[in-house]
Structures are given as structure tokens and as C-alpha cells.
Amino acid sequence: MWLRRAFYWVQLAAIVVLPTWIMIARSISPSGLGTQDLLVFLAWPALTVSMIVVLGVTWARKSVRTTKALSWTDVISLGAWYLIAIVYGVFVAQSAELAAGLTGGLLALASLAVFGVALWQLMVAARRRVETVFASLDHVALPQGEYRATRVTPTDGDVIRIDPSER
């Protein structure tokens, strides 16, 4: 459980740390990556935005908000995604153009996969909640029979009358 709770909070830190790691790795690389420079500079904001979107979709689930813990599926998918981002930064720092390109493509695919997994889990959780609501609506709210309203007479208690004032 501690790992699932840790990943709940790691998501916030990863939004800042992982894209920053990629930019720092690019700045310490001994030589430029050539055409890969543009992809590195595009990967930074794309990774940040995708992490924010996945965070929002993940935190949209009530079970995540109430327990402040992610599911094991979230932990595995996010862990793999974060690991790929770290490896991408390592390859960028080493100026390994081919490896950085392959890892960058893998990072983009992993981003889509993690978003898909988070969205799927949100839809399953929402479906369960809707089914629960509809199941509770199947019950009869009032017992069957005739409803009789109680009649109120002026002798039952104080009556307050408010007349609109004339101007």
C-alpha cells in the first residue's frame, strides 16, 4: 500500500522533475544531436502536458481521491513510463542519436498507452458508480398504498401572514 500511496504523490513531482531532467541532460551533452535537438525541445512540453493530463484523468477517479493511493495498474504503467523518460534523458546526455530517437519514440508510445490505461480505468470506475445509482433507483421509494396528506387547520397553531406593502 505504501508504494501505491507514494506513486500518488510522485505524480506531482514527476511533472516537474522528468521534463527538467530531459532538458538538463540535453544541456550537458558534449555535442549536439543534430536533427534530434528539435525533437528534444518538442518532447519537453509534450511530456509535461501529457503528465498533467494523465494526472487529471487518474485523480478523477473517486477511489484514488478517497484512498490517496493509485491502483497497481497505475503503479506499473506510470513506473514504466517514468523509467522510459529517465532512460531517454540518459541517451540524450550521451548524445546517442539512434538510441535517443528510439527511446523518444518509445516515450511517445508509452505516453499514449498510459493515457489509455488511465482513461479505461476512469470509465470502468464511472460505469460501476452509475450502475450502483441505477440499482438504487430500482427500489420503491414509498411503500405501496394510498397516501393521505394531513390537513392543516387554523386551530393547529400559529399562522403568519405577510402582505406585500403598497408603495
What would you say this structure looks like, in words?
The protein has 167 residues and is mostly helical. The protein has one domain. 72% of the residues lie in helices and 0% in strands. The chain is built from five helices and no strands. It has helices at 2-28, 36-59, 62-67, 72-93, 97-137. Helix 1 runs parallel beside helix 4, helix 2 (36-59) runs parallel beside helix 5 (97-137) and helix 4 packs antiparallel against helix 5 (97-137). The longest helix has 41 residues, at 97-137. The model has no long low-confidence stretch (mean pLDDT 84).
Structural features:
transmembrane helix, about 170 residues, membrane, mainly alpha, transmembrane
Counting structural domains, the number is: 1
Strand count, sense and barrel status of the largest sheet are: none
| End-to-end CA span | 69 Å
Query: What are the segments in which pLDDT stays under 50 over at least 5 consecutive residues?
Result: none
Overall average pLDDT: 84
Order of helices and strands: HHHHH
Could you tell me the number of beta strands? 0
Provide the helix percentage: over 70%
Keywords: Membrane, Transmembrane, Transmembrane helix
Transmembrane segments: 7-26, 38-60, 72-92, 98-120
